[in-house]
């Protein structure tokens, strides 16, 4: 029943997706170039699909040809199957190569798992180098992301960020006055990578990448890069094609998002009382979410200091819980 329910939600989301569903799909060469990995990145003959692989030698990745200032960015992704503990696949925006100490970032991170346990999906937002405040949320999915392609999308405007899975909004980050520069506000490139995150990605490093299952292959296709391209020297937008984007979450979509979060969210920084005695200023605490997460993990979300050492951050991009049920 749960799967059928979310399939219906996805269908309704496509019907309600407005201009997002009509955006052009780029070939790889039109939008991207290889970042690293040598032969571990393979472009299909049709020019529209790419494999990224991780083996004992290296991971791999690609990056957009242009910097963008706001827009809608998307790809269909199929993740590696079987034992994937320690493997991280990322689809994200960043300007860390240009702004070393005050970079911005908007992340989708996919965290592998041991055999028989599902991939987890993590979203994160940094602004102006605010890495000391991790804005992570983590979720399970209503499907196996290694079975088939699914669409993962980021909408970024000057006032909000929305993460979508198969056109279902799963998270909205609204810019608030109190966030100041912590809201991403500088042009960014789009990246996709696969890499070894053994030290933190699966239960805080308890389960590591096992290369007897390599190569780990992530498939990417259906690239959408719909934003204002920016001159890398002047950093000024050269287009204005984001004005027609659908940026408002409809009542239907908000119901979809609330349902997803109620059923599938397993971690939110806003409720992590080990890391933050007082939630960061932009957090809007939902009592129902707080109650559900506290039942799920009373140490992290109940504020108990008993296992404080186990819940310290193990990586600048993650606050992975020790709870093996995640």
Outline:
The chain is an alpha+beta fold.
Please characterize this protein's 3D structure:
It is built from 5 helices and 15 strands. It has an 8-stranded antiparallel β-sheet. A 7-stranded antiparallel β-sheet has the order 2-3-14-5-10-11-12. The two termini are 22 Å apart. The model is unreliable at 3-18 and 306-326 (pLDDT under 50). It has helices at residues 2-15, 28-31, 251-264, 287-296, 298-302; strands at residues 32-36, 41-43, 49-54, 60-64, 67-78, 87-94, 105-111, 120-126, 137-139, 150-156, 160-165, 168-174, 189-196, 216-230, 265-268. The protein has one domain: Jelly Rolls. By secondary structure, the chain is α+β, with helices and mostly antiparallel strands. Strand 7 and strand 8 (120-126) form a beta hairpin.
Mean pLDDT: 87
Beta-strand percentage range: 25-35%
Element string (H = helix, E = strand): HHEEEEEEEEEEEEEEHEHH
Helical content band:
10-25%
CATH topology title = Jelly Rolls
Summarize the topology.
Layout: H1 2-15, H2 28-31, E1 32-36, E2 41-43, E3 49-54, E4 60-64, E5 67-78, E6 87-94, E7 105-111, E8 120-126, E9 137-139, E10 150-156, E11 160-165, E12 168-174, E13 189-196, E14 216-230, H3 251-264, E15 265-268, H4 287-296, H5 298-302
Antiparallel strand pairs: 1-4, 2-3, 3-14, 4-13, 5-10, 5-14, 6-7, 6-13, 7-8, 8-9, 9-15, 10-11, 11-12
Features:
326 residues, alpha+beta, Jelly Rolls, 8-stranded antiparallel beta sheet, 7-stranded antiparallel beta sheet, 5 helices, 15 strands, 32% strand, disordered C terminus
């Amino acid at each position: 029943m749960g799967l059928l329910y979310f399939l219906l939600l996805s269908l309704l989301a496509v019907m309600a997706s407005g201009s997002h569903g009509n955006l052009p799909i780029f070939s790889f060469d039109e939008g991207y170039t290889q970042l690293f990995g040598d032969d571990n990145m393979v472009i299909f003959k049709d020019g529209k699909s790419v494999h990224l692989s991780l083996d004992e030698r290296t991971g791999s990745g690609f990056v957009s040809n242009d910097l963008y200032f706001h827009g809608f960015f998307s790809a269909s992704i199929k993740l590696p199957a079987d034992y994937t503990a320690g493997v991280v696949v990322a689809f994200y925006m960043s300007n860390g190569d240009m702004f070393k100490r005050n970079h911005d970032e908007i992340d989708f991170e996919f965290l592998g798992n041991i055999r028989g346990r599902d991939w987890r999906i993590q979203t994160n937002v940094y602004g102006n180098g605010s890495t000391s405040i991790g804005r992570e949320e983590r979720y399970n999915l209503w499907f196996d992301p290694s079975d088939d392609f699914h669409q993962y999308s980021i909408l970024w405007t000057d006032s909000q960020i929305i993460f979508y899975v198969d056109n279902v909004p799963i998270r909205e980050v609204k810019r608030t006055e109190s966030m100041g520069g912590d809201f991403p506000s500088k042009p960014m490139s789009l990246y996709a990578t696969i890499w070894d995150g053994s030290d933190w990605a699966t239960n805080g490093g308890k389960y590591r990448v096992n290369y007897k299952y390599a190569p780990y292959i992530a498939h990417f296709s259906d690239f959408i890069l719909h934003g204002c391209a920016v001159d890398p020297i002047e950093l000024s937008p050269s287009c204005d094609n984001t004005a027609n984007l659908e940026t408002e979450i409809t009542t239907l979509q908000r119901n979809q998002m609330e349902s997803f979060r109620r059923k599938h969210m397993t971690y939110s920084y806003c409720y992590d009382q080990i890391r933050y005695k007082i939630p960061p200023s932009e957090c809007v605490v939902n009592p129902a979410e707080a109650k559900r997460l506290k039942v799920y993990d009373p140490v992290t979300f109940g504020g108990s200091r008993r296992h404080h050492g186990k819940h310290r951050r193990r990586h600048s991009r993650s606050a992975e819980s020790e709870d093996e049920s995640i």
